[in-house]
Design brief:
Shape: extended
Number of strands: 6
Order of helices and strands: HHEEHEEEEHH
Distance between the termini: 86 Å
Helix content: 40-55%
Structural class: alpha+beta
Largest sheet: 4 strands, antiparallel
Length: 177
């Protein structure tokens, strides 16, 4: 038993934060499932002394449906409470990340092992090249020139003119080779 406890403690020390969270959620769900299984009887004694689950066991009890309803509300409450706690934890971790001075504005993959990154540090923007061997500063980019240009208006084509051009091509004989 002590060997198992030592191994669990060693795993806990070297595991990541996400692994610890998942392990905690797993332990909580197993405990909650066990508690609800203990709370639900579900078995009734038959006249011959054996226990067997019968489909109408407890239907004559006036609190049968009230008990089921309370258990349903408890399960839903645990589910919603867990979701709210997870949401709060996620928002807290995202809120601390907003104070960063270093942001990746845009990334473009050139190949599986090469990429360009536009990085903003304070009010400066840097174009950085990254490969599997290293990272190199390509240039400092002016913030005004890095903003995307306004799209140029495209001349609208009418459907009838496009259809006529295809009809004219279909009327011409195909060139022979």
């Amino acid at each position: 038993m002590q060997n198992t406890a030592e191994r669990l403690l060693a795993w806990w020390r070297k595991s990541t934060r996400n692994q610890k969270i998942y392990a905690g959620l797993l332990a909580f769900s197993l405990l909650a499932t066990g508690a609800f299984l203990l709370m639900t009887g579900g078995e009734s004694a038959s006249p011959n002394g054996t226990t067997a689950a019968s489909p109408d066991a407890g239907l004559s009890d006036p609190f049968f449906y009230a008990g089921r309803f309370i258990k349903l509300v408890a399960v839903l409450g645990i589910f919603i409470g867990g979701a709210l706690l997870l949401r709060r934890w996620k928002l807290h971790s995202l809120g601390s990340a907003n104070g960063r001075r270093l942001n990746v504005v845009e990334s473009v993959r050139l190949s599986p092992k090469q990429a360009l990154h536009l990085v903003r540090i304070g009010d400066r923007e840097l174009l950085i090249g990254a490969t599997d061997q290293g990272i190199a500063l390509i240039s400092s980019v002016d913030a005004q020139s890095a903003s995307p240009a306004a799209p140029q208006p495209v001349e609208a084509l009418e459907f009838s003119s496009v259809l006529q051009s295809f009809a004219l091509r279909a009327d011409q004989p195909a060139p022979r080779n």
